[in-house]
Specification:
The complex is a heterodimer of chains A (111) and B (115). Chain A is an all-beta fold. Chain A has no helices and eleven strands. In chain A, strands 2, 4, 5, 9, 10 and 11 form a six-stranded mixed β-sheet that branches. A five-stranded antiparallel β-sheet of chain A has the order 1-3-8-7-6, with no helix packed on it. The chains are: A mainly beta (111), B mainly beta (115).
Chain lengths: 111, 115
């Protein structure tokens, strides 16, 4: 039973444009959400987080939006750069417990 | 500052064998979690340890076990290896204070191949 879903396996975006990666979850107990970036043969690298008390968190070019009523979060990357090409995972956790990961979205930024 | 380290980087075993994977957390982090990632999937939670005690266990068979040492490093053991155990095994550490969820930082992983 996949509690965190990333329905787009891949996404291609032109350099300089906005990349929007989406994630849906089913468990209303999730209260902390993370986005990770992963290159082949490396572990996931933490990008940005958001707790359920907020609906937006921004860090440089990365912004995460949380819509609790829709059980949906999204990661916006503006402007997109070729170095952003990687697989992006969203992860969610109920308080003090394990993280559940989505299946990932492979982002390609075209120069 | 050193991040999460894992050893070995790669490992090849045959069915039925046993394997031990090792992880050293970020200095000051007291919680270690183990994940299994198979190709095309996201990481799947196996175990979480905090202050040397098991705090969570995912849906994995009893062939999988783990422990955490006084220096907060951790081992993941898998007995009676099956072909389906071939995966990237990831270790993540977090600071964790009093039960609230904290960001987990991942190591580079150990690539296990079972032949």
């Amino acid at each position: 039973d996949q509690q965190v879903k990333q329905n787009s396996p891949s996404l291609s975006v032109q350099e300089g444009r906005i990349s929007i990666l989406n994630c849906d979850y089913t468990n209303s107990m999730f209260d902390y959400f993370l986005w990770y970036k992963k290159y082949p043969a490396e572990g996931p690298t933490f990008l940005i987080s958001i707790s359920s008390i907020k609906d937006k968190n921004e860090d440089g070019r990365f912004t995460v939006f949380l819509n609790k009523s829709a059980k949906h979060l999204s990661l916006h990357i503006v402007p997109s750069q070729p170095g952003d090409s990687a697989v992006y995972f969203c992860a969610a956790s109920p308080t003090g417990n394990q993280f559940y990961f989505g299946t990932g979205t492979s982002l390609t930024v075209i120069p | 500052d050193a991040g999460v380290t894992q050893s070995p980087t790669h490992l090849i075993k045959t069915r039925g064998q046993h394997v031990t994977l090792r992880c050293s957390p970020i200095s000051g982090h007291k919680s270690v979690s183990w994940y299994q990632q198979v190709l095309g999937q996201g990481p799947q939670f196996i175990f979480q340890y905090y202050e040397k005690e098991e705090r969570g266990r995912g849906n994995f068979p009893d062939r999988f076990s783990a422990r955490q040492f006084p220096n907060y490093s951790s081992e993941l053991n898998v007995n009676a290896l099956l072909l389906g155990d071939s995966a990237l095994y990831l270790c993540a550490s977090s600071f964790d204070v009093g039960g609230y969820t904290d960001t987990q930082y991942f190591g580079p992983g150990t690539r296990l191949t079972v032949l």
